[in-house]
Design brief:
The chain is of the alpha+beta class and 128 residues long. It has a single domain, classed as RutC-like (60s Ribosomal Protein L30, Chain: A), CATH 3.30.1330.40. It has two helices and eight strands. The radius of gyration is 14 Å and the shape is globular.
Amino acid sequence: MSDLRSVHTEDAPAAIGPYSQAMVSDGWVFVSGQIPFDPATMEQVPGGIAEQTDRSLRNVRAILEEAGAGMDTVVKTTVFLKDMGDFTAMNEVYARHFGDHRPARAAVEAAGLPKGVDVEIECIARLR
């Protein structure tokens, strides 16, 4: 039987539906899609795609750390963009958050994202 636990931190936005911020199973962390909401206000951060990507990845980082993982243990990410024209600006911020670590990634344009945001990011990571 595998272990299975949900992850919650006040340092990332609370789930806005019937799901967990992340789930941990058998040494893996599955982080739900993170949107650019400030966890203190549960409101979208001001600014464009760079600010939204930064906030989304800061939310991912907080959840990973709560779970016992980190950005350097991420194996795969999926980035959902409202407009693929924002890819370059998103990618610059993404690269800063991951440094030399290069997880596998998919980036797709989505017709609509939760709460009308421009970016949502999910990931899978290993526990430390």
